[in-house]
Each structure stands twice: as structure tokens, then as C-alpha cells.
Amino acid sequence: MQRPFPLPQEDFSLKETAPRLGGGGLSGGDKLTNTYDLVEQMQYLYVRVVKAKDLPAKDVTGSCDPYVEVKLGNYKGTTRHFEKKSNPEWNQVFSFSKERIQASVVEVFVKDKDLVKDDFIGMVLFDLNDVPKRVPPDSPMAPQWYRLADRKGEKVKGELMLAVWMGTQADEAFPEAWHSDAATVPGDGLASIRSKVYLSPKLWYLRVNVIEAQDLLLIPKPGFPDVFVKVNLGGQILRTRFSSSRSANPLWNEDLMLVAAEPFEEHLILSVEERIGPNKDEVLGKVVVPLQNVERRLDCRVVSSRWYHLEKHVAVDGEQKKEVKFASRIHLRVSLDGGYHVLDESTHYSSDLRPTAKQLWKPSIGILELGILTAQALLTMKTKDGRGTTDAYCVAKYGHKWVRTRTIIDSSNPKWNEQYTWEVFDPCTVITIGVFDNCHLQGGEKANGATDNRIGKVRIRLSTLETDKVYTHSYPLLVLHTSGVKKMGEVQLAVRFSSSSLLNMLHTYSRPLLPKMHYLHPLTVSQLDYLRHQSTQIVSMRLSRAEPPLRKEVVEYMLDVGFHMWSMRRSKANFYRLMCVFSGLISTGKWLGQICLWKNPITTVLFHVLYAILVLYPELILPTMFLYLFLIGVWYYRWRPRKPPHMDTRLSHADTAHPDELDEEFDRFPSTRPPDVIRARYDRLRSVAGRVQTVVGDLATQGERFQSLLSWRDPRATALFLIFCLAAAIVLYVTPFQVVALLTGFYMLRHPRFRYKLPSVPLNFFRRLPARTDSLL
Fold it and tell me: Are 499 and 467 in contact (CB under 8 A)?
């Protein structure tokens, strides 16, 4: 089904840029520190307000409620105020972007908070031409005491400790400073705009081996008892199958896998239950296992089992009471398996492949440095005061470390110029960078359940980067909507992957992708899907509890939650990817067909000569093949990719997808669409599945025909095949193999005038063999 209208042509390509990384240093010969050499230099005026002393009383009560106001042109920042304190301490930093400075003097006022009008206490003025410059790793600027003056410049009572300097975003004070760009953000929303570094919680696979139970007090009822065990860990609920022993001493010996996160806040709760009716279970006993006491293992060794006494809780007057009047117990083997890597991302673009246990980590092989520079032409994401606006920030995720840039207020071309670093343990990993619109500038209570809008994301695979080379590109930010793919803007990044040891990095290509426990004691596909879902839920919940929170919708977008859901567009893309993989084999087959048909006689004759040489000298076959592959690789080196891969709309079939297919892709589960729409989609899915079913059936038919050669299902065909096999064995025994190979090859390459258009005898014989299709209903 084709799109009924053409898509507008947009520039979805990757563009190489030439930013002025490092900025060439500050005027006067100072240079930016090497830790910020992947971003453009941004200069700021910093004012650190430390404390004040001997402030005069202004209220009629003889007290003072002081605060400080720092003013530079139209920008004004204020500290918090103190009640009735003449020697307050603030220790707050204010930063003003040099690009937006429109004044030559910075004014620092000390005022007294009042209900009607704040009283002026004193002020300190600084000429910007006299402000010193500082760049780390220089020591921090030492604050000094300054005597307050009135508006006429005469000294008054009170002193203020300040430090004023010109610096860059490399300054230690930058992350926690009040920024003039965010002057319109209220105080309770300031926390949501600052840059932060987050760490994912340390995740473990918890293996619960439910072995057996003894002396259960079963519910009296006719028939055999149906007893099972339910396991609960922080909302993760699994249950065993019904015991086959059907007695008061049931046996299961079943493994259940869950995900646990440090610090272990939840306890493992196991309940033995009996099915007494349809959807009705009775709890026979419970046991609570603190995870702090669970044994940790790094390999496949067997953990010692343990018997736990079951306790039954009954409700008395609305309160839970422990009733211990029976000796039922359960036999368990519980362990925290640290030899696995807990998958919280799609395996296609994982950023970390290390096991949970730190003792099993290999040494790092290098450093990944990312400079988040700017974004251009971002679309407006929301309406404020009757006009469109965008408050953009970036999130980057690699390994356990998440970083979040500061939010640039009301700008479609934000400049972050922030640089971050990660240790790299495996080059075959992916870093993900997402751009979002901040919808929580008014504080948590005023957000009314708003979610941060996604603007787009970029993935960069480290193995596609050359070591010690700085890649500076502008990546398109593409988002798929129900109306089609949409370019939301561009983000400019600088990336460098540095290797500490080339030999160690090359050695990683010979190691298994995942830790060895995944191969020695593998988990099933359904277990991995369930555990991945639980892991993403735990990570998103923990990060959303940080301050400022990394919100659930942001984490799920970065981790590609829901990527496995059905999509007609993605199915088409995967089919054409498969066809592209086999296109080389198809082209080779067509080329051999043209040789057999003598389309180019010279090529065919040369192929005859090459074939004869390889048959007569078979020891040349493998060297010739590998030399051919080597020459192809050297030839393709001229056209090697010069840019990192990026989101490809054509490969994703995003630019040709029908609107109804996209609407189906974004539909929730279960569906919320009208019945007639669901019926049409179901019919379309049945049509596609019918074609797949036909292809699978044809493949099965060919395989069954091979099996029927010796199965005597068709006795005449099997007898003919056995006679042929006996004759072939005798002929091949008395005839040298090279003669047989030459005669067979030359027969296959014979001239078209010696060919028949009808199918060959072996093919006719094969197609007449029986299959099991006639036994299908």
C-alpha cells in the first residue's frame, strides 16, 4: 500500500561541521583546559556571594531580613533571604553570559525584605574592565570583604564578602550557578534546568530455585490439591507450575528469575498457595527473605539450599497477626547471580556488556569523549503566552552513566557546549544522545502531569569511529509521528574515541559479546524479554526519584522501550534488509548463470581455464578464495565511510509508510481504535501472514522431499535413487575425482546449443517426490 500523497523533500542527511573547538583560549594568552577541548568556549561573568556581617537593622523591631540582589543590565538574580539575621551566609554563585552583557558595571545590592517595599541597605559596584580572568585548573578566586556604600557612593555600615571573575563553562561553579539565561524561571523550577550526572542502579539477576515444601496444611476439598508458589519482589510477580506430586509434600524444582537493584530496599516474599476454585487461591503460608542475606555467586557453582519456615498471617480487627501453629516449611535455593549482564537495553545497541559483579570486569580499553555543542532550527514544542517556545536540553547515555545538560530557555538554537567523558570497556557498543523539551520549568506542583516532549535522538556506534579522531557533525533529529517522519531540527556533536591500548582493543573482538554465564547457563528468550522489561522499569523509577529527576518518559525513550512491538513499517524494513544481505549471493548466481549461457564468450572461456586449474590443483582453492576477499577489501577501502552512521529514513521505510500503518504502530496495547479499523488491520495482517505461511510451507515441502529419498514413502522413487547411488559409488570409486569434477563442471558450462529448455532429469525426479502436504487438514 503506497502513501496517497508525496512527502516533502527534507534534508535528512548528516553534515560535517567545523566548530571552533577549545575557542583558542581567553584573551591575554590564557588557554582553555584540555578537559573542554571538544566544545566551543563560552565566557561568563561569575559573582559568588558568600556572606555579610554587621548589617544595620531596618525594621521597627530592630531586626534585619537580608538578601542580596546581583544586577547586570536587564538581568537580575537574588539570593534567598534570612529572617532576623545581621550576619547571614548565602554562598551562592551567579553567572551572566558575556554574549548578552549590555552594561559595563555589575551592581550588588544588599536589601532588607519587607512586606510592602524592600529597604535598601547598601551596595557594591564592579567595573567589568577590572574583573580578573580565571580558567581551571587555576585555583578558585578567593572572596574578599567589601564595605557597603549608599547610592551616592559613601561608605555605610556593613560588609559583604564577594568574589567576581570572568571564566568559562569549564569553571567548577558553572553547574550549580544561577544563570542569567534562566532569569524567568521561578525558584522551585531552577533544579529542573541544571546539568546533572546520573548513575543507573546496580542490577542483579535474582535466581529463586523452588525445590519442595513439607507438611502443608491443605484446604479440605474433593480431588487432588493444586499447589503452587508465588514469588513477589517489588511488584515483580512470578509463579511456579502446579506441583505434580499432588500431596502435602509438593515438589517443584523450578527456577524463577527476577531483577533486584541495589540498595536492596524490597524483600523477597514467597507464598505457597492452593487453587480452591476458578481464579480463587488460598495462601497456605508465607516467607520473607531479605536480599542482604542472599548469597552472591559469580559462576555456575551450586549455592547451598536452605529450609524456611512458613508463616500464616490472618487478619484480626483489620490488623495482620502472625499465626505460628504449624510446622510447614519450604526448601529454597536463592542466589544473586553476578556473572550475568543485566540487559536493560536492546541487544542491538547496548552501551554496556559487563557482568554485574565488579570482580569480573576487564580493564578499560579507552576513553569516550562527547562534546554537546549546539542545536539548530528546533521546532516550537509548546505555546507560552500566546507564542511558540522550546526549552531544550540533552541527555546522553553510555554504560551506567547518564548525563543531562542544562536547559536553555526559550531558544530554537540553544548552545550548551558541555563536555562529558566515559570509560570504554568494549568498542562494539553504542552511545545514545537524546534532545528533549523541558515542560517542568514552573516546578513540580505546577506541571500538572506534563511530560517532557521528545525532539529526537542520535545513536553512535563506537566501533565505527577511528581512534583519536575528532568527529564534528550536525545530526538530524528525526521523530516518527502518525502523520509521517518529521525533522525536528539538528544537533551538533563532537565525538572522540581514544584507545589506551590497541592490542587490548583488538583482543576484545575475540571475546564473547556477553559474559560467559550467558553461554554456560543461558536464559530463555521469554525470560530475557521479561527481565529486560523489569530492568527498564526499575531504572526509570530510580532515575525519576533523583533530584532533579530524569523523568520516566525520557528514560524509556532513551532505552527504546516498546521497540519490539508490532510495526508493519519495521517489518518491511527488516525484509528489505534481508533482501539486501542476500543480494550479493543473488548477483553471484546471476553472474554464474550468464557464464553458463555464454553471454560473454571470453569470460566463459576464462572461467573454464580457472575452473580447470582449481580442479587440477585443489590446494589453490582456499588461498585463492582468501586472496580474492583480501583484494576486495583493499579495493573497497577507497570508499570506506567517512561519517558515523545516523538515522536513515529510507532504510527505516519512514518516508514511504502509509499513515494507517503509522497509526497502527503508535496505537497502544490493547488497542483503542474503533472496531472497523481493527478489523481492517487484522485482515491486512492475515494477508501478510498468509504469504509468510505459504513461503514457510514451500520450504518445508522441499525439506520433506529430501527426507523421502530414503524413507520408502514412494517405493519406486526410493528404489531408483538407491540404484543411482550404487552406480555412482562404483563409478566414483574407479574414476579419479579430478576427472569427475572436470566433466561435471564442463557439463554445467556447456554451450546453449547443447541445452534443452525443459527442466533437467534430476529436477524432474526431485519435484515428483512426495511430501507431507497431502496429510495436512
Answer: yes
